């Protein structure tokens, strides 16, 4: 059922982006990169807006969450995250599988994760992450699947 809802969310968001003139199937690499930057900034801004709905400052006395506004800002952030996933060509099933893998990895890290030993000393990326071809003894700067701007 949840996967069906995720499919619906992706479809509705794709339709909205098409209505706004963002056709990911026909978008040039240059335009896609610009779109990704704009959506990333928008996502970041929505996260900041959500934080402003809380009493997060350790030096302030108020410790609150304006829950309705906070949730609304998180939904806005989610929409921009979906846009980024669409721009990356991701499908709902891929997101679901990726989530399951990341969740499993997080549980495995509860057994003892130092944040250093599983990462490349040069690029600081985790050896187990998709698209990372470094090994503990060798940094690989070229990444398979790299797409260049035409």
Structure overview:
The protein has about 150 residues and is an all-alpha fold. The protein folds into 2 domains: about 1-110, Helix Hairpins, CATH 1.10.287; about 115-150, no CATH class. The chain has helices at about 1-20, 30-50, 65-85, 90-110. Helix 1 crosses helix 3 (about 65-85) and helix 2 runs antiparallel to helix 3. The radius of gyration is 19 Å and the shape is globular. The model has no long low-confidence stretch (mean pLDDT about 90).
Assembly category: single chain
- Helical content (DSSP H or I, runs of 4+): 40-55%
Q: What share of the residues does DSSP label as strand, in percent? A: under 5%
Number of helices: 4
What's the overall geometry?
globular
Tell me the total number of β-strands: 0
Mean pLDDT: 91
Straight-line N-to-C gap: 40 Å
Q: What's the helix-strand series?
A: HHHH
Class from secondary-structure proportions: mainly alpha
Looking at the overall shape, the CATH architecture of the largest domain is Orthogonal Bundle
- Kindly give the count of domains: 2
What summary fits the major beta sheet?
none
CATH topology of the largest domain: Helix Hairpins
Report Rg: 19 Å
CATH class of the largest domain: Mainly Alpha
Low-confidence stretches: none
């Amino acid at each position: 059922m949840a996967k069906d809802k995720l499919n619906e969310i992706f479809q509705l968001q794709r339709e909205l982006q098409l209505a706004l003139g963002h056709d990911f199937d026909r978008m040039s690499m240059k335009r896609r990169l610009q779109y990704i930057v704009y959506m990333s900034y928008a996502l970041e801004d929505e996260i900041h807006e959500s934080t402003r709905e809380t009493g997060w400052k350790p030096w302030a006395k108020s410790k609150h969450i304006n829950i309705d506004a906070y949730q609304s800002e998180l939904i806005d952030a989610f929409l921009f995250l979906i846009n980024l996933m669409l721009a990356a060509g991701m499908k709902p099933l891929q997101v679901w599988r990726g989530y399951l893998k990341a969740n499993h990895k997080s549980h495995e890290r509860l057994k003892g994760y130092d944040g250093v030993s599983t990462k490349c000393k040069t690029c600081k990326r985790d050896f187990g992450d998709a698209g990372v071809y470094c090994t503990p003894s060798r940094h690989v700067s070229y990444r398979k699947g790299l797409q260049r701007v035409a």
